[in-house]
Amino acid sequence: MFNLRSLRILVTGASSGVGLALARRLVNTPHRVVLTARAESLGRFAAAGIHESECLMIRALDVSSDEQRRFVVDEMNARWGAVDVLINNAGVAYRAVVEHVTEQDRLIQMDVNFRSPMELTRLVLPRMREQRFGRIMNVSSVGGMMAMPTMAVYSASKFALEGASEALWYEVRPWNVRVSLIQPGFIRSDGFEKVRFTPLSRASQGDSPDPYSNHYRFMERFIASLMGRALATPDSVARTVLRQMSRRRPPLRVPATLDARLFSMLRRLLPRRLYHWVLYRSLPGIGRWGSDAP
Questions:
Q1: What Cα–Cα distance (Å) separates residue 278 from each residue in 33, 263, 273?
Q2: 188 backbone dihedrals φ, ψ, rounded to 5°
Q3: What is the percentage of the chain residues whose pLDDT exceeds 70?
Q4: Most Cβ neighbours (<10 Å): which of 53, 141, 197, 218?
C-alpha cells in the first residue's frame, strides 16, 4: 500500500491561479513535486518565494509540446522512478460564440484543454499500472457539466475531458489507478481578465455593430460580477484537489465550489427541458440579445 503522505507529483499550469495555490501548499511537504509552467512564466515561482530543492523541481512545460511532455515525464521516471499523481491543471479559455470560432481557434483550445492532458496521462499510465497505484487529477470546470454562451469551444474542450476521464475511470481501476475530475465554478480571481478572444470575437467587442455584440457585452459583465462576488478562491480549490488526492477512494467527479454543487444538483433534479429554460431565462440582458448592437 502506498504512503499517501509521500507521493511523486507532477503539476501542470502551476505558475498562476489554482496551480500556484497548489504549488504553495505542496512546498515543504513530504511529497516530491515537479511544478511546471510555460518557459515565459517560470519567473513567477521565484516571485512567490518558491525555489527548487531536493524534493522540488521546477520545469518549463508547454503542455501542447510532445517533446516537452516526454522530457518532463522521463526526467521524473529517471530521478524518482515514476509519477504517482498527475494533476492536469493547465488550461486556456476562449470567449467566442460558435460563429466566431475558426478551425484554427478550435484546435488550439482543444489541444491545450483536452489533447494535452490525455497525452500526459498516456505517458504516466504504464508506470502507474506496473506499480498498481496512481492518481489522475483532471481540473475540469462547471463548463464541463453545462455550456455557457460565448464559451462554446471552451465547454467543448471540458466536455471532451470529462468524457475521456469517465472512460478512463473504468479502464484503469483494476490497477488501483484512480481518476478524478475537479469541477470548479466561479472563483474570486482575475481569471476572467485572462480569457482569450478569437480574431472574430475580439472584433465584436465595444461598440461593434456585430449581431453578437450584446451577447459579449452582457455576458462579460455577468461573469465579472459573479467572479468578484464568489466565495471560492484558488486556494480553496487547491485544498479540494489535495484532499481528494489523499483519499484512498476518491470519487470520479468532485464539484469544487458552491455554484458547481448547485448546478450539479439542478442537472440531476430538473427535467432537461425545464433545466435549459431556467438557465436561458437567467441569462443577463437576454431580451436585448439579437437586437441591433450596441
A1: 44, 12, 9
A2: -70, 95
A3: 97
A4: 141
